[in-house]
Amino acid sequence: MLNYKNIKIYKKLCFNTITYKNLKKKILQLILQMILSSKK
Questions:
Q1: Rounded distance between C-alpha atoms, residue 34 and residue 2, angstroms
Q2: Of 1, 16, 17, 35, which one has the fewest beta carbons inside 10 Å?
Q3: Per its UniProt entry, which superkingdom is the organism in (predicted)?
Q4: Within 13 A of 18's CA, how many CA atoms are on the CB side?
């Protein structure tokens, strides 16, 4: 039971970090686009 719970939590953490990284990438791209468009 304890093992199963730990695996569940671990999977959740992994998923969260992956989504966070993807979000960060998207946000960075958006910021870059904004900077580029404001320079024109």
A1: 48
A2: 1
A3: Bacteria
A4: 6
Structure confidence by residue, pLDDT tens digits, 22-36: 999 999 999 999 999
Domain of residue 27 covers: 1-40
Q: What is the DSSP string of the chain?
A: -HHHHHHHHHHHHHHHHHHHHHHHHHHHHHHHHHHHHHH-
The two tokens of residue 8 are: 């569940």
Number of structural domains found in the chain: 1
- 1-40: b (≥16 Cβ within 10 Å) or e: eeeeeeeeeeeeeeeeeeeeeeeeeeeeeeeeeeeeeeee
